From TrEMBL:
Similarity annotation: Belongs to the bacterial solute-binding protein 1 family.
GO CC, alphabetical: periplasmic space
Localisation: Periplasm
Entry keyword set: Periplasm, Signal, Transport
Organism classification: Bacteria, Pseudomonadati, Pseudomonadota, Alphaproteobacteria, Hyphomicrobiales
Protein's name in the database: Carbohydrate ABC transporter substrate-binding protein
Amino acid sequence: MTMNRRDLLLTGAAGLAATSPFLSRTPALAQAAEPNYKPEQGAELRILRWSPFVKGEEDAFLANAKKFTDQTGVQVRIDKESWEDIRPKAAVAANVGSGPDIVLVWFDDPFQYPDKLVDVTDLATYLGGKYGGWYPGLEGYTKTREGKFIGLPLATIANAVCYRESHVKDAGFSTFPTKTDEFLALCKALKAKGTPAGFTLGHGVGDGNNFAHWVLWSHGGKMVDENGKVTINSPETIAALRYVRELYQTFIPGTESWLDVNNNRAFLAGQVSVTANGVSLYYAAKNDPKLADMARDIRTTNFPIGPVGQSVELHQVTSTVLFRHTKYPNAAKAFLKFIFEEPQMNAWITASSAYCCQPLKAFANNPVWTSDPNHAAYARASETLRPNGYAGPLGPASASTMADYVLVDMMAEAATGSRTPEEAARRAEQRATRFYRNA
């Protein structure tokens, strides 16, 4: 069968961005020329992604891949790994020069191997111009200081506080606290009632990092300043570490070893009343008939505000990167273009049930964000997130510091008492300085 140019471009109607009710009316940016990627003869693609927490999200991703195959003939194999295993698997592929063509990676991991990735600036420019622009907080995860895109931000997996409303009220609070001191008081009351809180202090790629960064930032601490100078050993950090030490006393035992799955399991088992997670936790209860009562009791909200006086949240960014070792770069770029176009992207966001927040501003009007009150805490994650490298630029140093769990370890050490706050801050300073020395 002969494919025409329309088939090869794999786009919807040219007017979709202007007419679709799923797209916001964000003013269009300067429209770049639409790239035309003709898949190589006999092309096959292998994609590595993280294991899903929302079945609808995975189903939609697989459906989009099948749709791409049906239209192009390019076979797509999709492999999955746990969240914690994606980072080392991607690093191995980069170092040995073989393996998956495309990987869905975390945070600023692309800066750990930028010379191993295909420049996709032309595609990023086209998509940004067509769909209202990339959110600035996401763009920095794949855009180099020279202005080149070494990947495409795919989504923000938002993190919010999930809690049992009846337990909070039984503890004497009519509403969930909005300030860190009140939050500490709630957690103390919950522990006294036998319905404790529990937040990840282990090497959870998402939940561990999200919680640790919130504690630090809410008290005014930061890993580095605007120039990339390590400033983690500060009075603000010490205050944050003293706070997390007191907060930890109210937790269920063992949170220092939790990964991304553990807080889900503890909450759904009724062991904790408050934790932080993606909206997947709510749907895990809602979709289980045995947990119907729990599901009706679950509420979500954003993290409380600390002494810094403003909302400061990390949220987890996932991006697509294309490795230079691919034998089929045109097919791979055609696939990426296809999944970011309106029909596929909005179908994926909808099926994700508020789990994946859009990377491009034009998709903010997707009805999923207002379809359930528990989605509200996740709806603006791409717009409001603070990058993990704050207050310095993202790059190899910030990526390595996060991959080495410098901040998470500091929080866990102070929380458990294995080090004093001062000792934990000094150790984090020494570890981070190794990465930022040549930044």
